[in-house]
Write a structure and sequence with these properties.
By secondary structure, this protein is an alpha+beta fold. Helices cover about 35% and strands about 35% of the residues. It has four helices and twelve strands; from the N terminus they run αβαβββββββαββββα. Strands 2-6-7-11-10 form a five-stranded mixed beta barrel. The two termini are about 20 Å apart.
Length: about 270
C-alpha cells in the first residue's frame, strides 16, 4: 500500500469538493423552492383593480399578496437632517463614538465603540400607483417597523476625526483613553421611491386598503424595489449556487479520476 501513488492532498481535495458540491446543491434546492413560492404570490398595484378583487374576496381580505407602488406620505414627510430637499417617511439617525483605551498589560491601545445613539422617526405613509401622487386609491402601510427587509436608503454618512492638541495629549496620558472619531449616519425610506410589500391586504369601507402583517404567520416584508427586480435577485442567487455546485462537482470528479488513473497506471507497471 505504501507504494501506491496516491497523494493524500488529492484525496482530501476530492472529498472536500464533493462535500461542498453537496452543500451548494442543498442551498440551490432551497433557493429554487423559495423562488417558486415567490412566483406563486399574486402581485397587485394600488389601483381600482385591487379594490374590485378585494370586494369579491371573502371578508374583503387577501391573505398573502405583493403590492408594488410608490411611497407617499399621508401627511407632512420627514425632512433629512443632513441632506437638503430630501424627504422620507421612515428615518433612522445613528451616532456612535470610537475610543481607544490603553492596556497597561499588553502595552497597546485597544479600540472600542461606545455611546451609540439611534433615533427612529416615522410618519404614516401609503403606496400609490406610479404617476398618481394625487389620488383617492392607495394602500396604507400598517406598522412598517415590524416588517423585515432592508428598505432604508443611506443618504448621509460621515466620520469626524477627533482633534489632537497638546492639552488632549496630556489628558490622554493621564487617563489612558483618547477619542478617535465620531460616526454619523442617516437612513431614509424616501418619498417617491419604489416599494414592494408582502403581506395581507384588507379593504376598509369601499376605498381604503391596508397592507399589514399576515395572520397566518407568514413573513411581513417590505423591499425597496419592484417585484420583478426582487425576483431577478433571487434567480441570480439560485444560479450562483447552481454554478458552484457544478464547478465543485467537476473539480471533485477530475481529482477522483486522477487518483483512479494513478492506481490503474501503477498496476499496469507492476504487471509488466
Amino acid at each position: 500500500m505504501a507504494d501506491l501513488p496516491i497523494n493524500p492532498l488529492v484525496l482530501i481535495g476530492a472529498g472536500s469538493s464533493f462535500a461542498f458540491s453537496g452543500l451548494f446543491y442543498q442551498l440551490y434546492k432551497e433557493k429554487r423552492k423559495e423562488l417558486q413560492k415567490l412566483k406563486e404570490i399574486p402581485v397587485f398595484k394600488p389601483d381600482t383593480h385591487l379594490i374590485k378583487v378585494l370586494k369579491a374576496s371573502l371578508h374583503k381580505r387577501l391573505q398573502y399578496v405583493a403590492v408594488e407602488g410608490l411611497v407617499q406620505a399621508d401627511g407632512e414627510p420627514l425632512a433629512s437632517q443632513f441632506v437638503p430637499r430630501c424627504f422620507g417617511v421612515i428615518q433612522k439617525i445613528a451616532v456612535e463614538e470610537h475610543w481607544k483605551y490603553w492596556n497597561s498589560i499588553t502595552k497597546t491601545w485597544k479600540s472600542q465603540t461606545m455611546n451609540r445613539k439611534e433615533t427612529n422617526n416615522l410618519v404614516p405613509f401609503s403606496l400609490v400607483s406610479p404617476g398618481a401622487y394625487i389620488t383617492d386609491v392607495y394602500v396604507k402601510i400598517q406598522n412598517p417597523l415590524e416588517a423585515s427587509g432592508c428598505h432604508l436608503d443611506r443618504v448621509y454618512y460621515k466620520v469626524r476625526r477627533a482633534e489632537e492638541d497638546l492639552v488632549n495629549l496630556l489628558m490622554q496620558g493621564l487617563n489612558g483613553e483618547k477619542p478617535v472619531a465620531m460616526e454619523e449616519s442617516e437612513e431614509l425610506l424616501r418619498v417617491g421611491s419604489t416599494l414592494t410589500g408582502f403581506g395581507e391586504v384588507v379593504l376598509e369601507g369601499d376605498q381604503v386598503m391596508r397592507l399589514q402583517a399576515p395572520r397566518d404567520g407568514r413573513k411581513y416584508v417590505l423591499v425597496p424595489t419592484d417585484y420583478r427586480s426582487f425576483v431577478d435577485r433571487h434567480e441570480r442567487s439560485a444560479n450562483m449556487w447552481k454554478t458552484l455546485t457544478v464547478v465543485t462537482g467537476l473539480t471533485g470528479a477530475s481529482l477522483l479520476a486522477k487518483v483512479i488513473y494513478g492506481l490503474v497506471g501503477n498496476r499496469d507497471d507492476r504487471s509488466k
